[in-house]
């Protein structure tokens, strides 16, 4: 059985805060979850589009691009499936860092693929015209999902820290 939400009266540890974040939120309907699913679908779609009709002066780019995009899509599906399997409840800090690093690396790889596609393949055919902007949009989406995850977790962390800080007494007259 997975650990339940931690709710002790003392200060929470980082792991408790991160675990509570994943426990309290419906990840599948959250902005970061939806962005991950859309990004994984776009990875597969971009690979199919490029395989089906992409023409490029660099033939090695075709194989490398589709392989990298499919691996990126699989990594995003792994992150989504991991949340479905409640992995973040058992190792919340590791999962958070894995999510953020994977999203960032995937976004950077897609940005590089998009730029290389624009530079080496040109915008001569309809497929080439659609491919690079599609991958660029996907790079923004997947990086955005990592940023949204980070911001939401840090917001939760700050709120928990403030809630458990000792209250200071009112200043006495000579301190004012």
Automatic annotation (TrEMBL):
Keyword Membrane on this protein? yes
| Keywords assigned | Membrane, Transmembrane, Transmembrane helix
Q: Where is the chain membrane-spanning?
A: 34-55, 61-83, 95-118, 130-151
Name the source's superkingdom: Eukaryota
What protein name does the entry list?
Answer: MARVEL domain-containing protein
């Amino acid at each position: 059985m997975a650990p339940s939400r931690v709710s002790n009266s003392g200060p929470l540890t980082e792991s408790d805060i991160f675990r509570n974040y994943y426990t309290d939120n419906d990840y599948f309907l959250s902005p970061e979850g939806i962005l991950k699913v859309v990004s994984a679908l776009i990875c597969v779609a971009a690979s199919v589009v490029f395989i089906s009709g992409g023409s490029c002066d660099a033939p090695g780019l075709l194989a490398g691009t589709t392989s990298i995009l499919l691996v990126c899509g699989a990594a995003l599906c792994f992150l989504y499936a991991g949340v479905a399997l409640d992995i973040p409840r058992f190792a919340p800090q590791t999962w958070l860092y894995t999510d953020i690093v994977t999203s960032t690396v995937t976004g950077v790889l897609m940005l590089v693929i998009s730029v290389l596609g624009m530079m080496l393949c040109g915008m001569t055919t309809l497929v080439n015209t659609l491919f690079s902007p599609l991958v660029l949009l996907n790079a923004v989406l997947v990086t955005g999902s990592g940023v949204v995850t980070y911001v939401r977790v840090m917001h939760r962390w700050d709120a928990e820290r403030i809630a458990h800080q000792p209250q200071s007494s009112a200043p006495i007259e000579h301190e004012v």
